[in-house]
Each structure stands twice: as C-alpha cells, then as structure tokens.
What does this fold into?
Amino acid sequence: DLHSFPTRRSSDLEPVGRFRKALGETLPFYIIQTGFYKNHDRNGFNEVRKVQQLVAEHLSNTFLVYKNTAEFEKLGWMKDEIHYSQQGLNDIGEKMASFIASIEKTNTNN
It folds into this structure.
C-alpha cells in the first residue's frame, strides 16, 4: 500500500497514486526501468532505478517488467545519447508483453 512505502520522498509514489486514483486502485502498474543518458553522470539515473525497484517491491500489483535498459549503450541499442533504437524498443515491447501475459495467465488460473 502507498502509505507503508519506505521512501524519503512521497513524490516517488505520485505517478502510481495518480493513475490508480483516476483508473482504479487495483490497476496493475508496469515499470520499464530507466536507462542512462550517454556520456553523462549516472548518479541521478541510478537513484531513479533504485526507486523504481523499491516501488515495484513494495506496492501491490506493481511490477518492474524490464531492467535491461542499462545495457543498451553496450548493445548498440541507442539512437542517440538519450533515445533507444528501434531494436531496443522492440526488445522492451516483446519482453514486457511476455511478462504481462504470464501474469495474466497466472491470474486467470487462480
């Protein structure tokens, strides 16, 4: 639940809370972990990645569905310094769809 989340900033939870307030408290929330801005300091990005992980671990029906964006530069999946290439976007889409389908299959069987 949003009130028991161990965070220093309540703003970390605002996006999930806003969507759930507007669309229903049981709305699944799927997170694609942020990547990095090429040739820039990674500290801020690493902090965001940690918060995304914590949100997924502590809020019910919230999932970190893709973590590999940190590897995109090494894989050559960057279009420019900040945007992912089509190959990267395709990988995100395929893995995210598989993850959600597996969750839905599990929920349907329960």
Summary: The helical segments are 14-23, 43-58, 72-75, 86-109. The beta strands are 29-32, 62-66. The first helix runs from residue 14 to 23.
